[in-house]
Structures are given as C-alpha cells and as structure tokens.
TrEMBL record:
It comes from Hominenteromicrobium mulieris. SMART domains: Aldolase_II. This is Rhamnulose-1-phosphate aldolase. It holds the Pfam family Aldolase_II. It comes from the Bacteria. Its EC number is 4.1.2.19. It is an enzyme of class 4 (lyase). GO terms for cellular component: cytosol. GO terms for molecular function: metal ion binding; rhamnulose-1-phosphate aldolase activity.
Length: 273
C-alpha cells in the first residue's frame, strides 16, 4: 500500500500532528515534500495514468523532473490520515521546471495546495542553499505567532530577537533567525517570490497576519522548527499579556552569545546588539 511507504507515512503523520496542535483549522496550512529518487521508485507501482500538465506561474531550473508529495487545495489536514487518496497527491515537475502533473492521489479533480508556487520556489532556494539536503516545506496557521504580527514591528530583527529571548533553546534551533513577509495576498507568484527571497537567508518566514513557512531536511526537523517557533511565540504572548505589555527581564545578548558558544552554533550577528 502507498501509505506503508515511509515517505508517504511520514507525510501523513505530519498532517495529523499539525492538526492535533491546532494549526490547521478547516483547510488552513499545507505541506510539500521533495521525494528522493528511490522513494519515487517505491511509489511508482502505485502511480495512476498521468494527468494534464498545469503551469505554475513560477519556474526553477533546479527542480526540473522532481517529484513532490503535496496536500490538496481546499483539503482539511484533519482528513489526510483517513483518506489520503483524496486529500494529498504526488506531482511530477516537467522538463522546463514550470508545470506540474498529478501522478497519484488528489482524486476527483483535486489540485495541489494553492500555495504550491510558494512551496516550489522555497524548495528551489533551500535545495540550492543546502546542497540538496532540504526536502520539506511546511506552512501552518500558528495562532500565537500570528498574534505577534499585530503588536510587533514587521521586521526580521524584531521577530528574531523576541523569539530567541522567549526560550533558551530557540537560538540553538534557529540560529539564523526568521524572516518576515509583510501582509500580501496569499496563493500566487508574488508572495512566492517574496517568501523565497527570504528563504535564501532563513529557514523560516513569517507571513504577517497569516502564519509561518518553515523548511528542513526531513519531517522531524521541519515539524520541530514550526513547533519551537510557535511555542516561543506562545511564551512571548503569555509574558507580554501577563506583564501588562511590559517584560521585566529577558535573555540578554551576552546570554545568547554564551548559548551559541556552548552549543557550537553561529548566531546571525545582524540581530545582536
Ligand atoms: P490550500 O487549501 O490551498 O492549501 O490553502 C490553505 C492556506 O493556508 C492558504 O494560505
Ligand atoms: Zn495559509
């Protein structure tokens, strides 16, 4: 069975995990995974007759001929586990690197997530930046981080510092910091280009008043990054609310440098005083 193949099983589990965290109301959020060649071969016996090509409005040379597992547009991540064939699918990218076609799943006329252009461009830049190591792009509607985008200046510096200071593990988990995309219409090529521009530098990009995009080499690390950032945002919001808008003390820049030294990570110096 398709769902016994580890790449597919891990994908389905991540959808369920995100649902259980409360990050995927209705059809909110989406997930894509760039398959390894051997995983494509494991899945190939289950492929259906390929359907028509669909142009994406974005293009990437380094993703020509790749295969992605993707959630469907308008599909509820809550339902993925019970009915993968209708809620997720596998798409193949054409030789020009600008179109997809469904080779498995997304039954009954479903299509890949409306954020596929953003996922695709993020895959392209993260693949290039990590020598092919990064394979997962994940978008979720994380409530505490979204709340932060109403009360904090929409800069990478403000968000990174607030998140780093909100839990001691944060600078170790995302030493590069997070980027911030201002409010934009979701689902198209413009937000895809703006997000992937930030993904050249960061593993994570906040979408103001909308949610978060994260990237990683596998499901665990990528889910863990989403979880760590959202939990830090929760701690920040709890502290700022309980403190009546004031924070009495926090992790200092010297503390941050000490953590980085101890854990052998290089903090993005742009964000330190
Ligand atoms: P899709 O249902 O098309 O994946 O859209 C959900 C979403 O979160 C849009 O940003
Ligand atoms: Zn969204």
């Amino acid at each position: 069975m398709m769902t016994e193949i580890p790449a597919v099983r891990g994908f389905v589990r991540m959808c369920t995990d995100g649902w259980e965290q409360g990050w995927h109301e209705r059809n909110g959020g989406n997930l894509t995974y760039r398959m390894k060649p051997e995983e494509v071969e494991q899945c190939r016996p289950f492929f259906t007759a390929p359907r028509e090509w669909n142009s994406m409005g974005v293009q990437a040379d380094n993703l020509k001929g790749e295969y992605f597992i993707t959630t469907g547009s308008g599909k509820f991540l809550r339902n993925v586990q019970d009915d993968p064939e209708h809620n997720i699918g596998i798409v193949e990218i054409n030789d020009a690197g600008d179109s997809w076609r469904i080779v498995w799943g997304l039954e009954n006329g479903a299509r890949p997530t409306s954020e596929f252009p953003s996922h695709f461009m993020n895959h392209s830049v993260r693949k290039a930046a990590t020598n092919g190591a990064y394979r997962v792009i994940y978008h979720a509607h994380t409530p505490n981080l979204i709340a932060m985008t109403y009360i904090m200046p929409l800069t990478a510096r403000d968000f990174t510092r607030a998140l780093w200071q909100s839990a001691t593990e944060c600078p170790v988990v995302f030493p590069g910091g997070v980027g911030v995309v201002p409010w934009m219409v979701p689902g198209g090529a413009d937000i895809a280009m703006a997000t992937s521009e930030l993904m050249k530098k960061y593993d994570a990009a906040v979408w103001a008043h909308h949610g978060l995009f994260v990237s990683g080499p596998d499901y665990d690390i990528t889910f863990g990054l989403m979880h760590t950032i959202e939990k830090a945002a929760q701690i920040y919001m709890l502290a700022i609310t309980a403190g009546g808008g004031k924070i009495r003390q926090t992790i200092t820049d010297d503390n941050l440098r000490a953590i980085a030294k101890e854990f052998g990570v290089e903090l993005n110096e742009e964000f330190l005083n």
